[in-house]
Amino acid sequence: MNWHKMDAIIETPRLRLRHFVESDLDAVAALMANPDFMRFSRGVFAREEAKRFLLDRLIAPTRQCLPSQFAVITQEEKRLIGYCGLFRQVVDEISEIEIGYRLHPAYWNRGLATEAARAVRDYGFDVLELERVISLIHPDNHASRRVAEKVGMRLEKETTFRGFPTLVFSHRREVRVMSRSNLVNPP
Ligand SMILES: CC(C)(COP(=O)(O)OP(=O)(O)OC[C@H]1O[C@@H](n2cnc3c(N)ncnc32)[C@H](O)[C@@H]1OP(=O)(O)O)[C@@H](O)C(=O)NCCC(=O)NCCS
Question: By residue range, what is the domain housing residue 43?
């Protein structure tokens, strides 16, 4: 696993994914003050909490060459509308890499989270050579469950994570590679 490749920029048809920088604070603070953006989390963050999150959870892992989140920027407006990327998590005492995503509600239901998460999945499998990625989702979060399915994840189990009932969706590289090679090169 080569986390030293974590300085990437990922382009998709509608999005540019790049790493976070300190000057993203205004955009991140505005997003984290929005209750819909923060749905299925601990709730909205004040500016100081958002600053800590930006520095400790979004920027520091990138600089330490650890799995990290990308700022999601629209190609058209060049607006920072959320984040999507990789978090290291310990689930049922197993170390896992999670694909996480969170977008401004004005951009929901256009397929953007799926577009970002698929690009992050491919980056994880093809560049970082991850064997497996997961998503941790509250059972009532139907939009997120749908995104996980569209990214190719399958429900693996239900557990308790940080005190909350949580569905673990997972995806293995070999499964994605097989389905791809089936498409490109049918047996
Ligand atoms: C989850 C989230 C990232 C999805 O972003 P998005 O850009 O709207 O996702 P997409 O448009 O790619 O896909 C959403 C899918 O969920 C479906 N959906 C949306 N709301 C739904 C609901 N209440 N019930 C069932 N399906 C729903 C959409 O119809 C779409 O599926 P489809 O393409 O089959 O029609 C966004 O809602 C969000 O940021 N929510 C708050 C934060 C969050 O919950 N993050 C995930 C934590 S695990």
Answer: 3-184
For the chain, the domain total comes to 1
Q: H/E element holding 164?
A: strand 164-172
45 lines ligand 1 (CB under 6 A): no
Neighbours of 21 (CB within 10 A): 12
Q: What is the CATH number of the domain that holds 79?
A: 3.40.630.30
- Alpha carbon nearest to ligand 1 atom 27, residue: 143
The Cα 125–Cα 133 span in angstroms is: 9
Nearest to 104 by CA among 53, 175, 183, 39: 39
User: Does ligand 1 have an atom closer than 6 angstroms to the CB of 137?
Assistant: yes
Per-residue model confidence as pLDDT tens digits over 148-173: 999 999 999 999 999 999 999 999 99
pLDDT tens sequence across 16-53: 999 999 999 999 999 999 999 999 998 999 999 999 99
